[in-house]
Amino acid sequence: MNFTDEIIDALSIDCLIFGFKDAQLSILLVKHGIGPTLGQWALPGSWIKYNESIDEAAGRILSSQTSVENIYLEQFKTFGEVRRFSPRRVITIAYYALVNIEKFELHPGPTEADVSWFNIQEVPTMPFDHNKIFEDCLSFLKHKIQHEPIGFNLLPAKFTLLQLLELYEAILGQKLDKSNFRKKFLKMNLLVDTQERQQDVSHRAATLYRFDESVYNKLLEKGFTFEV
């Protein structure tokens, strides 16, 4: 059998976990503690076992390397460039999730030296094609946020319109008109005024909102166009 007839025998999972806090969108990375990429920051990822589904593998890998668990991971894209991983031919399935950073306490797994959140503007050079996977997923989110509501898992249960605006600005990477953003969002009837205001703030307390879950789910199914 020559090289071109060989069968692909390596399949892996890579996880892109985005979190939002203090007006910054971050990505969860692990520092490799063993192997040829020792000391390098990378996306949480590893091999799929023969006796598990790919969804099970994604959850296991993420939990074992970062301690983040019990979250919904959605398949994003498959990456299979011939030379993306040397010396073997490896295809990886990328999963992504949007989470509230404050809900999770991070702990590196036995093969990781560290685990941490990185501002999306400060992502280091990663091994393999992890930077491309990250950039492709971020581009996907920029498109998605203009056609589906995003924020249910990234924001606290009760949030201000400014926090929502900052989330959109962080994902899109651009400043938005505050007044226009407010009008468009309130027009969708997606937000419910909780009749509460911020507590323990040095500035004028802003109104707190929550998502109307039924409207949110309908918009997820139907989609919409949110022009910025």
UniProtKB/TrEMBL annotation:
Domain NrtR DNA-binding winged helix residues, every copy: 151-211
The Nudix hydrolase domain, residue ranges: 12-136
Gene3D superfamilies named in the record: Nucleoside Triphosphate Pyrophosphohydrolase, Winged helix-like DNA-binding domain superfamily/Winged helix DNA-binding domain
Pfam entry (one): NUDIX
Native source organism of the sequence: Runella defluvii
Protein name: ADP-ribose pyrophosphatase YjhB (NUDIX family)
Domain of life of the organism encoding this protein: Bacteria
